[in-house]
From TrEMBL:
GO terms, molecular function: acyltransferase activity
Domain Phospholipid/glycerol acyltransferase: 70-189
Domain of life where this protein originates: Bacteria
UniProt xrefs under Pfam families: Acyltransferase
Keywords on record: Acyltransferase, Transferase
InterPro entries in UniProt: P_lipid/glycerol_AcTrfase_prd, Plipid/glycerol_acylTrfase
Official protein name in the record: Putative acyltransferase
GO cellular component, one term: membrane
Length: 289
């Protein structure tokens, strides 16, 4: 059978072409978009809204360095609506003050989501190495989610799993600028919808990795429409979100002048996994917490 005559393959190819055509229209993130005055105005109201919906429990903020640059490394949850992004923005900004430079690296799709105007004002920029270097050179706090789209769309059945997909670029970033890593562990995001599959094979077939830097085309069920179009906004279920910050890790102090990245990666993931497993053991019911 000629695959070119298959209507399903034809439809997927057409969809892939349309998605690839969107790429030039997506706006990039810019470190200059962060607006302390806007943050100061939005912070109280957003805390009330987010607090009522997700009942966030944020632990260990005292582990953040009092000053100077640091790299906050978190597991990613909850699809394009990733509740830990906004919650951590609110929590860290409240704790450190709006004037302390705090930025988050995110996929360009997030920077063009309905929450983008708020996220940009709070310091969300595109996950580009140049942005990461710029923030740390300025002495800012930088938050990264190494698992990216691969981890954020993992099936709900894997909600208790740290999965960075073997990505170690953040370790090279920390070593280059000699900054401590502060692990951030989140649970609850994969309960805001029913994530069924990453859809990696479909994304590969449509060549979305080349056009949109996407390695997944997720299949999920969410409110209010059930089956959700990939990367479309949805109404997240009011799942209780718990975030824990762990003691900072100074790579060269811990692993020597020339750390083995594989060892550092394995140790960090194992440490975060132990915490995530403990947080999962605390949960009594899905969504309720």
């Amino acid at each position: 059978m000629d695959l070119g005559d298959n209507p399903v393959v034809g439809a997927l190819s057409f969809a892939g072409d349309r998605l690839r055509r969107l790429a030039p229209r997506l706006r990039r993130g810019d470190v200059d978009d962060r607006d302390p005055d806007a943050i100061r105005e939005l912070l109280p109201g957003l805390w009330l809204l987010i607090g009522a919906w997700f009942r966030p429990d944020v632990r260990g903020l005292h582990h953040l360095p009092e000053d100077g640059p640091a790299l906050i490394v978190g597991n990613h949850t909850g699809g394009i609506m990733s509740p830990e992004v906004l919650i951590s923005q609110l929590a860290i900004t409240s704790y450190c003050g709006v004037e302390r430079p705090f930025y988050q690296l995110a996929h360009r799709m997030v920077l063009n989501s309905p929450l983008a105007p708020i996220l940009r004002r709070f310091g969300t920029v595109e996950a580009d190495p140049d942005n990461g270097h710029a923030v740390l050179e300025q002495g800012g706090l930088l938050q990264v989610f190494p698992g990216g789209d691969y981890e954020v769309y993992r099936p709900t059945s894997q909600s208790g799993l740290i999965d960075f997909g073997g990505r170690k670029g953040f370790l090279r970033l920390a070593l280059r600028h000699d900054v401590p890593i502060v692990p951030q562990v989140t649970i609850g995001g994969q309960e805001t919808a029913l994530f069924l599959s990453r859809g990696e094979k479909i994304a590969e077939f449509l060549r979305l990795d080349r056009a949109l830097r996407l390695k997944v085309l997720p299949v999920m069920l969410s409110a209010p429409f059930g089956i959700t179009v990939p990367f479309a906004p949805f109404l997240p279920l009011p799942s209780k979100i718990v975030i824990a910050y762990l003691p900072p890790i100074h790579l060269r102090e811990t692993y020597g002048d020339d750390p083995d990245l594989d060892r550092v990666y394995d140790d960090l993931v194992a440490t975060m996994q132990d915490v995530l497993s403990s947080l999962q053991a605390e949960r009594k019911l899905p969504v309720i917490g």
